[in-house]
Amino acid sequence: MNIPNILTSFRILMIPVFVLVFYLPVEWNYKGAAIIFAVAGWTDWFDGYIARRFNMTSPLGAFLDPVADKLMVVISIVLIVELYETPWVAVPALVIIGREITITALREWMAEYGKSANVKVSFIGKVKTLWQLGAIFFLILGGAQPSLVDVFGYPLFVILGYFSLYVSVALTLWSMYIYIKAAWPYLTSKEL
What we know:
CATH architecture: Up-down Bundle
Structural class: mainly alpha
Number of strands: 2
Largest sheet: 2 strands, antiparallel
Transmembrane segments: 6-26, 71-97, 130-148, 154-180
GO molecular function: CDP-diacylglycerol-glycerol-3-phosphate 3-phosphatidyltransferase activity
Strand order of the largest sheet: 1-2
Enzyme class: transferase
CATH superfamily: CDP-alcohol phosphotransferase transmembrane (TM) domain
Keywords: Lipid biosynthesis, Lipid metabolism, Membrane, Phospholipid biosynthesis, Phospholipid metabolism, Transferase, Transmembrane, Transmembrane helix
Number of domains: 1
InterPro entries: CDP-alcohol_PTase-I (IPR050324), CDP-OH_P_trans (IPR000462), CDP-OH_PTrfase_TM_dom (IPR043130), CDP_ALCOHOL_P_TRANSF_CS (IPR048254), Phosphatidylglycerol_P_synth (IPR004570)
């Protein structure tokens, strides 16, 4: 267990704490959950930076990091769908979760044929993740009442959350297209 793996494990352990705080019957539950989510997001960036910078990559880290990311994103999106109870959040959530399942399956399939490098994480995928994390943070924080700042009758964090959510959905579809395009010759090959 090196430092990046400890940070990744910490992120996984934060998930039940995040859910518990989200449901606490207190006034600050959404603020607390948003802060926990932000800390988890920073540990994601930080563990990757340390692993690359100090050459601490490992097979365990390569497995745990995407698992931690997917768990945190999918669980938080489910909570946001419940919080907002609107198709304007549910439909983007379905797109994001559907893409995660599709690309995870595609990567697993490509790895079986030794072609996983063809569908490694792209720059667009990283930008998509950043927008996704921002959307989740703002939407959770936007559930806190009362709002500090309203814009056209809506809390500022909710507006930022919706905007970030729809940008992340566009990037989600774009990155999925890039991955499927890279894998398409192998998916349609009769030689594999």
